[in-house]
Amino acid sequence: MAADLFFKSIAELAALLEAKTLSSTELTSALIARKSAVDGRVKAFNSSDDADALAQAAASDARRAAGQARGPLDGIPVGLKDVISVTGQPLTASSKMLANFVSPYDATVTVNLKRAGAVVWGRLNCDEFAMGSSTENSAFGPTANPWDLTRVPGGSSGGSAAALAAGEVIAALGSDTGGSIRQPAALCGVVGLKPTYGLVSRYGLVAFASSLDQIGPFARTVEDAALMLGAIAGHDPLDSTSFKAEIPDYRAGLKQRRPWRLGIPKEYFGAGLDPAVGAAVEKAIAFYKSQGCEIKEVSLPHTQYCLDTYYIIATAEASSNLARFDGIRYGHRAKGAKDMADLYSQSRAEGFGAEVKRRIILGTYVLSSGYYDAYYLRAQKVRTLIRQDFLNAYREVDALLTPTSPMPAFKLGEKSDPLALYLCDIYTIGVNLAGLPALSVPCGFTPGGLPIGLQLIGQPFRESDLLAMAHTYEQAHDWHLKHPSL
Amino acid sequence: MSSAPDLDLEHVAKLARLALTPAEKEQFSQQLGDVLQHIEQLAKVDVTGIEPTAHAFPVVNVWAEDVARPGLPVEVALRNAPAQRDHLIVVPKVVE
Amino acid sequence: MTYEAVIGLEVHVQIRTNSKVFSRVAAGYGQPENTLTDPVILALPGALPVMNKAALDAIIKAGLLLGCDIAPVCKWDRKNYFYPDSPKNYQISQYDQPMCLGGTVEIELPGAARNVMGEHKKIPLTRIHLEEDVGKLNHFAADSLVDYNRAGTPLMEIVSEPAMHTADEAFAYLTSLRATMIYGGISDCDMEKGQLRCDANISIRPVGQKELGVKVELKNLNSISFVRDGIAHEIKRQTAVLEAGGTLVQETRDYDGQTGLSQSLRSKEMAHDYRYFPDPDLMPVRVDEAWQARLRGECPELPFDKQRRLIESYAVPYTITSVLVWDRALADFFEAAAKLSGKAQAVGNWIVNDLLRELGAAKLTLAASKVTPAHIAGLVALIDAGTLLPNAAKEVFIEMFATGDQPGAVMERKGLKAVPVDAGELEQWCRDAIAANPKSLADFKAGKESALNGFKGLVMKAAKGKADPKRVDETLRKLLAGM
Questions:
Q1: Residues 6+ apart with CB under 8 A from C409
Q2: Partner residues linked to A411 by β-bridges
Q3: Which residues contact B92 (CB under 8 A, 6 or more apart)?
Q4: Are B90 and C139 in contact (CB under 8 A)?
Q5: Which CATH code is given to the segment(s) B1-45?
Q6: How far is C83 from chain A (nearest CA, A)?
Q7: Among A361, A367, A371, the residue to mutate for chain C (most C Cβ within 10 A)
Q8: Structural domains in chain C, sorted by start
Q9: Are the C-beta atoms of A295 and A262 separated by less than 8 Å?
Q10: Surface-to-core class of residue C211, CB atoms within 10 Å of its CB (0-12 exposed, 13-18 middle, 19+ buried)
Q11: Which of A344, B61, C295, C477 is the most buried (most CB within 10 A)?
Q12: Cβ neighbours around C267 below 10 Å, total
């Protein structure tokens, strides 16, 4: 078996599977072996049901033998962030609260992936309840960045990004509330896409902040991201916020080449931007210019308020969403509680980690009597202004180009102050507040060999354009062909 | 470093049903104080006449017809329950 | 000092739907524990709510029936509080944009006598909103057990203005509201099944004072009679406290219908801070004119409107309409029979007295009864023609109720048809009866009207019950007048 099988793209593997030079069982076994070899160091997996994965692979092979293969994802092992529900599998949200929880139902994205024939395998590590930017907030320990095991993979979907970069999965799903797909994709050198709010169903995604959360793919290439998005996008009657949008053939759309008008928001290139990251992004901008794209500086004047707006809205929603974790119907229950109040307070105190507690407290506070107007309502109004900034910019440009993260992967344990960690998200959270699609595509390495991500922010439900723009860049560069040595 | 003068951590933790250790209280008080101080700058934004955004793409009347579908069998529904008896979930005695 | 009570009611009415308000698992009562759940009801991680169209139809219809303003747009809010019967530890409700605003409930107060219509009043409503019901807690010595079957059942909260002043008004309010909901097909309102629940806010103030007194919330009023008794008891209690020079405290009290006593619920929990905010998982509801018009078309005539019409169109007395109108099916039955017969009052009497009595004895609903409007009309026609005499008619009715056979056929089969009695023969029976009773004759002559009954009994015996009592009466009086 080719040693680099696990670094191939979905598109390449699909061709091998279709030619029957490779079976899904062989591919899945190779990945299980790869995981055994490297995950002791990367720690991207919370758990995996290898027997179940092999059974799915065998079913895929049987379909193919019967001439009933379901398309490019059939037989491809895909890892899921451990906040996405799969029937009969653990769903921990990387929390002690759900350490023993087994989900009795499938998320809609899980149903969609299974329908496409994918081998749904592995519960990938993340920050507890998707709250964090480094995957250090996992109750099961941090995940390491495959490019430098002493560094973080980003977060909160760090396990998804790291597993993909380490060759343990072929593609993965994550969730993005303030950058949780794009930032770890940038830090791990893979493609990460956060779809327009409402394009992908949230049913079965452990909720962090309902009005911001969105599931999206991690992939080695833009083409793979297009294939994954095509499989999971679409209206879902089980999610009231799911949008009835036409789903185009994203892969076919990759061939679009247009002299796009690209905006450079000046607020995204200020103080705090790592010089190596800034230089790589400037080079990418120069590339687009060389391709005949019009490059235009634009302003998103409310950018400085994004972080505060985000932390009010996200924590308020989270404080309510996480109230259900009370140790009654499921989850961690404290022993020896003397009454209900005690049972709640102790179970939650024992079940949740520090960052989750901080956010629940902040969210509870901003919603509490006398503060609602000053915090939550005001934040929702500022959200309107932030959203308006983007829509105004789109009168002049087709998309925006920015760094994904102000800095490359930092050292594990380096950022202990919550506020410093929150600043990792400054380029990504505006997108969530505005509900826009955005992706991160690798655009170089720091002198120290750490990956850098370029963020493309698109217009609502125009993922097809966004993918085509990123594909144009990717085809002219070979960043995606570089892999960490483990 | 500052602690928020308005943040009654004790009260908020009680509302959120979170028992905090003295160390957590001290740490959170300071950390959340910093965050709240940062958030104070939102007060500077002029939001006169601005509608709040609750949904990025608001639509109305998203519903389903009233057709009942099978739910979870009781054994499955209670499989994750920490304590159960006679198909019911056990909690400490609730005093109304 | 004289005190006046001020009463406001918060009534929760479960809407009858097939599925729950925010998920499609079945809604229902009396199912085995925890069998009506799904990921949404159990608040499993990742589950999301989806509105039930039928529940929205029902609350809009309720609002239209009660003359509320229907909000053109309303949204959903989360009411955050921890309680083991609430799986998400927040309840999806409507905080500042309820579906219905204003409106009234027409009530009738007790009249001077049972056969006299009482005063009618319109009690103003504040609002009606839709929310989800919670699960059920069963308390034991050492622990409590939770059943989530009821959780997520669509629930309307109907809030009145503090505009009632007596326990009788509150009783009349609930009676009317309940009938309206049943009429509209919105709920079965069975209080034993918790489909209608009532909390009362009660305060008293010196007559003439404008400001409201200290408010006490009375909970667990789980039958309409308990509502009346509980409120009456609470008004008495508050009055006694003030008259003894005491002060009232704002509190929640639990009324025990069995003992007729209430006690304070001294829960130590902190003042509520529900942290309402718009539910990001649900989209707003917009109700346009067409939707309202469609539901308006489905709205039935309300009980008191029906009563006014029945009295006017059929000239039936209040004693009949006051029974008929609380049951839509019974009123419809009456109208059908009255139209067939043309003798509305007679038809009404048979329905209100005999039919209801037999239904009650047989524990049958009207729908399950074999008696149709045509049976009643036929029976009345036979009586009217003199073919069936009153006592025999009662017998025919009972047989007809049991078998469903037409009254004519029953009469023939049982030989109950009135035999035309010869005038001469009748006169002879009367003379014999008078002759046999000289004492009664003397009594009658002395002015004792009841003495006549003694003769009548003998005549009927001689006639084997087939003589028309009216003719017997006439003949006896004629003969006695000449003696």
A1: none
A2: A151
A3: A337, A338, A339, A340, A342, A343, C143, C144
A4: no
A5: 1.10.20
A6: 8
A7: A367
A8: 3-293 (no CATH), 301-413 (no CATH), 423-481 (1.10.10.410)
A9: yes
A10: exposed
A11: A344
A12: 10
Residues in B touching A323 (Cβ below 8 Å): 17
Interface test with C, best of B8, B61, B90 (most C CBs within 10 A): B61
pLDDT greater at residue C197 or residue A271: C197
> What is d(CA A431, CA C256) in angstroms, rounded to the nearest whole number?
57
8 Å CB contact between A313 and A433: yes
Answer whether residue A439 is part of any domain.
no
Q: List the catalytic residues of A.
A: 81, 156, 180
Domain span at residue A166 reads: 5-261
Q: In whole angstroms, give the CA distance from residue C463 to residue C483.
A: 23
- The answer to whether C155 and C131 have CB atoms below 8 angstroms apart is yes
Neighbours of chain B (3+ CB pairs under 8 A): A, C
Contact call for residues A31 and A144 (beta carbons, < 8 A): no
What residue ranges do the domains of chain B occupy? 1-45
Q: Does B3 touch chain A (CB under 8 A)?
A: no
Amino acid C266: pLDDT = 64
Cβ <8 Å between A328 and C146: yes
Q: Give the pLDDT score at C268.
A: 44
Whether the link from the prior residue into A156 is cis, omega within 30° of 0, is yes
Sorted by sequence, the CB contacts under 8 Å of residue C16 that are 6+ apart come out as C58, C185, C186, C187, C188, C195
Closest chain A residue by Cα to residue C79: A320
Show the DSSP H helices in A202-305 as ranges: 222-232, 250-253, 275-290
Backbone torsions φ then ψ of B5, nearest 5 degrees: -65, -30
C100 neighbors C129 (Cβ within 8 angstroms): yes
What ipTM was assigned to the predicted interfaces of this complex? 0.97
Enumerate neighbours of A (3 or more CB pairs within 8 A): B, C
Are C146 and B66 within 8 A, CB to CB? Answer: no
Burial class (CB in 10 A: 0-12, 13-18, 19+), C387: middle
Q: What would the mean pLDDT of A12-21 be, rounded to a whole number?
A: 97
For residue B76, pLDDT over 90 is answered with yes
- How far A400 CA sits from the closest chain B CA (Å)? 19
Tokens in use for A308? 């505060």
Residue pLDDT, tens place only, A319-340: 999 999 999 999 999 999 999 9
Could you say which of C18, C270, C286 has the minimum Cβ distance to residue B68? C18
